[in-house]
């Protein structure tokens, strides 16, 4: 089809300046899209600086696309982009896991409230295990979508799992502490679960360096469940969060950190050789 008419210069200038209404502007645009002569006539009407900025924006969008929201949030917290990308890929930081953790904690706290504070087992069982399970989900050979990249990149596994551990704690600790404040009973119950959590997390990390996160989280979860259930052998129960037991948890955490540090040093030596 041959074009037999062309857009008037004044109308073309108004189109380039964006002064036309929607109907006339759409008509001119359809014609300009098909008419090479009218397209050429728009060139001197466009500000070269505006055109350059437009192409720069297109080039930036193609070469540097917008980062996903988790990566942007991590960057705003001061993390470098490589760390933010690896952190954002953690399964435990996705919406489904976070919502599931909040629901589990909420139901556990509700069970304690309905029992009038006489049965603390649900909350004491769930609260220390939520960050433990989150850390296990944050890094594992089968779950991690960036496992191939992590294997080939000069990025220590120990450093990665520690970064993701901090992220998991930041996502669940405030909510758990807030729920603890609403539990019936003495005020110290709001933070009593922190002792076991402080012990279970390093224990999980230390075990993961030997047997992997899946087996380690199963061992840790079964161990803590046994401790809580054992405390129920006689009612009223003596809950495993007394002052002397907190000292035991701190000692266990210290030993686990020593093992983790030794394993981390070993990984660095192996990485240097490779």
UniProtKB/TrEMBL annotation:
Q: Which UniProt keywords apply?
A: Membrane, Transcription, Transcription regulation, Transmembrane, Transmembrane helix
Query: Organism's domain of life?
Result: Bacteria
Q: Where is the Putative zinc-finger domain?
A: 10-39
* Keyword Transcription regulation in record: yes
- Hydrolase recorded as keyword: no
For this protein, the parts annotated as crossing the membrane are 96-114, 120-140, 161-182, 188-208, 215-235, 247-264
InterPro entries for the chain: Anti_sigma_zinc_sf (IPR041916), Znf_put (IPR027383)
Name listed for the protein in its UniProt record: Zf-HC2 domain-containing protein
